[in-house]
């Protein structure tokens, strides 16, 4: 009913204030935008149907319907045309609001960047990451395009802070949280306050400080996180990699996020060995030295800067399972 009322306003010479109110309604809930998009798709289908009818040379309208039926049909067509025009106006407004005034931020491999936003919030970008930011009078929106980002959100009750990551929409007012795009899921970690999360057809979920979520296109799985795990997930903010019993394969994958030439596993026996410690993201040599000192591992440098990890057959080192923590 609300959508119909707004469409009627748009179809009767809308003022700029009308347009602002309609945009506010659309941006207030992702489902509103979906409703308009579906209606627009239905109108496109109707237009295609009209074109198809013209191509097959249907007889004139008066030849197949009575005069009264013609009047009714004409009135319905006029109503449908008015609705279509209204949808077009809404689409134009939303397009302008969505794509104008966008600021893009990105980091190179190995670079970590802090960005002070216009509202007092801070965007933190991890290595090889990218995000778009756009602020309007009625909302604050960020789209994470790749990598990992962390947010310290300035409180503004009148302007929600929305973060889009793949199919997920995360909304906050004043809080702090971290999002990481993994190959098939989005990993959410909330460190302060509460956010709401919506993804695809899933219901709206609340995630509070000390909790996280694994977000897929049609599901949201909530998890409670220990303080130690939260520190580990956000260690990159201090330009550190924190390991706590991860396999060598997992550890190498973490360091490869900050290296242009990768650390490679050259022996299957190396992959399952485990390591712990805290290392600077900019100095993987320290990590490699720890591996060779504490585990049966030999690191071989490649000409392109890559490093191959091989198993070292030495009985005295075979029983070590963890590198010492700093």
CATH class of the largest domain: Mainly Beta
Radius of gyration: 28 Å
Low-confidence stretches: 40-45, 51-56, 94-100, 316-326
Strand order of the largest sheet: 1-4-5-7-8-11-12
Helix and strand sequence: HHHHEEEEEEEEEEEEEEHEHEHEHEE
Protein name: Transmembrane sensor
Pfam families: DUF4880, FecR
Transmembrane segments: 77-96
InterPro entries: FecR, FecR_N, Ferrdict_sens_TM
Quick recap:
The protein has 326 residues and is α+β, with helices and mostly antiparallel strands. It has helices spanning 2-10, 16-28, 30-55, 67-99, 227-233, 248-256, 268-271, 284-294, and strands spanning 103-106, 113-116, 122-125, 130-135, 140-146, 148-152, 161-165, 168-172, 176-181, 186-192, 194-199, 205-208, 211-215, 220-224, 240-247, 263-265, 274-280, 297-301, 307-311. Strand 11 and strand 12 form a beta hairpin.
């Amino acid at each position: 009913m609300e959508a119909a009322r707004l469409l009627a306003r748009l179809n009767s010479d809308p003022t700029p204030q009308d347009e602002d109110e309609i945009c506010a309604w659309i941006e207030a809930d992702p489902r509103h935008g979906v409703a308009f998009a579906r209606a627009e798709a239905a109108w496109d289908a109707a237009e295609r149907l009209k074109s198809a009818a013209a191509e097959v040379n249907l007889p004139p309208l008066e030849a197949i319907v009575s005069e009264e039926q013609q009047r009714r049909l004409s009135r319905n067509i006029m109503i449908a045309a008015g609705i279509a025009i209204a949808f077009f106006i809404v689409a134009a407004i939303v397009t302008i609001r969505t794509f104008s005034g966008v600021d893009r931020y990105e980091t190179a491999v190995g670079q970590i960047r802090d960005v002070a936003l216009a509202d007092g919030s801070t965007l933190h970008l991890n290595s090889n990451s990218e995000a778009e930011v756009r602020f309007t009078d009625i909302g604050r929106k960020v789209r994470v395009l790749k990598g990992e980002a962390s947010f310290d959100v300035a409180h503004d009750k009148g302007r929600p802070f929305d973060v889009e990551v793949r199919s997920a929409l995360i909304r906050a007012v004043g809080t702090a949280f971290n999002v990481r795009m993994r190959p098939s899921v989005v990993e959410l970690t909330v460190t302060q306050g509460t956010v709401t999360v919506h993804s695809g057809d899933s219901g709206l979920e609340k995630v509070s400080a000390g909790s996280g979520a694994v977000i897929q296109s049609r599901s949201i799985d909530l998890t409670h996180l220990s303080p130690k795990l939260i520190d580990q997930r956000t260690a990159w903010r201090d330009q550190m990699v924190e390991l706590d019993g991860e396999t060598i394969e997992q550890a190498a994958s973490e360091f490869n996020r900050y290296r242009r030439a990768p650390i490679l596993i050259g022996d299957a026996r190396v992959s399952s060995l485990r390591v712990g410690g805290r290392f600077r993201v900019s100095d993987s040599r320290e990590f490699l030295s720890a591996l060779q000192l504490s585990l049966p591992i030999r690191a071989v440098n490649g000409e392109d800067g890559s490093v191959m990890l091989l198993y070292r057959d030495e009985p005295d080192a075979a029983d070590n399972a963890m590198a010492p923590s700093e």
